[in-house]
Specification:
By secondary structure, the protein is of the alpha/beta class. Helix 5 packs across helix 6. The longest helix is centred in the middle third of the chain and has 17 residues. Helix 2 links the parallel strand 3 and strand 4. The two termini are about 25 Å apart. The mean pLDDT is about 95.
Length: about 350
């Protein structure tokens, strides 16, 4: 039986403020807490990928490409796969997810709990091998599969342009100087960049963040420098004002810093979104600990750099908390969460 989900839990995520984390004195760093998407599902709720997963499944059904006799197949580092699996399985489709064998355990467990099939690739072969393998399976029998294709599907960035960007604009009363996001597919930075650019008449600086090394360990982000690395079709670099590069060590250090900073208090909730304060207090933590995923550490490091370099007197920088830390019990939070 497929995991039961409530798709109304997608969107309307809270906006919180991280402070005393090394930002300039007058800067404000606001965070969209995206694990509140599908927050009632196991292993830390959903993620920043819940929105595009829904949009892509919707688009497949609306176009007629996705029919009841087809298996949904998707390559992923984990978060898109788990969200596609939740939504597609809940709607009655068979699902196969292709991901590297070092993916976060919480993501693997989520996919398995939906009843989806998993095909692993060797992480040492690189992430592009995940994409290649999914296409090999699809190409072996294209009439039997539907691939949402997060790397090439315009519904991915459209989900953020039509929902995330509008929520950020409303929750900040239009006070946004910069938007910062790590790049995996490019969907978040492209969609939010377009959306905020339109709402602000181009007044928001859009800053992409990529890993600084091909052998990084930042889940969900993609190294794209050099001819040998695939650049997703939906990643529209024309929306960017700048690009930063962050190391795995800095990403992990920032994530661990947040655990210490919010050991005894919650981050300040700027706007609760669609959620009650009771739900927010419950879902913000993992067994009492404030734990985020690795890419949230990346985003925080980059947001602080952007705030430091801003020419605004009191810069407002918005970024994303992509997922919760209980997806990373076999990596970032191994010592804390392993049983």
């Amino acid at each position: 039986m497929a995991m039961e989900i409530d798709e109304s839990e997608i969107g309307g995520t809270p906006l919180v403020r991280f402070d005393d984390v090394g930002e300039p004195e007058d800067a404000r760093i606001y965070i969209k807490v995206e694990w509140f998407n599908l927050y009632s599902t196991p292993y830390g709720g959903g993620s920043v990928k819940s929105r595009p997963a829904k949009y892509m499944i919707d688009a497949g059904e609306e176009s007629g490409e996705l029919t009841s006799d087809k298996t949904v197949i998707e390559p992923t580092s984990g978060n898109t796969g788990s969200e596609v699996a939740k939504i597609a399985r809940n709607r009655g489709y068979d699902v196969t997810i292709v991901l590297p064998d070092n993916a976060g355990q919480g993501k693997i467990d989520t996919i398995r709990d939906t009843g989806a099939e998993i095909e692993f690739t060797d992480a040492l072969e690189g992430y592009d091998r995940v994409i290649e393998r999914a296409h090999e399976i699809y190409d072996s029998d294209p009439e039997s599969y539907y691939m949402p294709d997060q790397y090439g599907n315009p519904a991915n960035p459209r989900s953020h342009e039509e929902t995330t960007a509008r929520e950020i604009w409303r929750q900040t009363d239009g006070e946004v100087d910069a938007f910062v996001a790590g790049v995996g597919t490019g969907g978040t930075i492209t969609g939010c960049g377009r959306g905020l650019g339109g709402l602000s008449d181009g007044g928001v600086d859009v800053v992409a963040v990529e890993p600084d090394d091909a052998l990084h360990a930042i889940d969900g982000l993609k190294y794209m420098e050099g001819e040998d690395h695939l650049v997703p079709d939906i990643y529209d670099q024309d929306v960017l004002d700048d690009k930063l590069y962050v190391s795995t060590d800095d990403s992990y250090d920032r994530a661990k810093q947040l655990r210490s900073r919010y050991a005894d208090e919650h981050p300040y909730v700027v706007d609760p979104g669609q959620h009650s304060r009771e739900v927010i207090e419950d879902v913000l933590r993992v067994d009492g600990e404030f734990l985020v995923g690795t890419s949230t550490g990346t985003n925080l490091e980059a947001a602080i750099r952007v705030a430091e370099e801003s020419e605004e007197d009191e810069p407002v920088v918005v970024t994303m908390a992509c997922d919760r830390g209980d997806k990373y019990e076999n990596s970032l939070w191994r010592d804390l969460l392993e049983s």
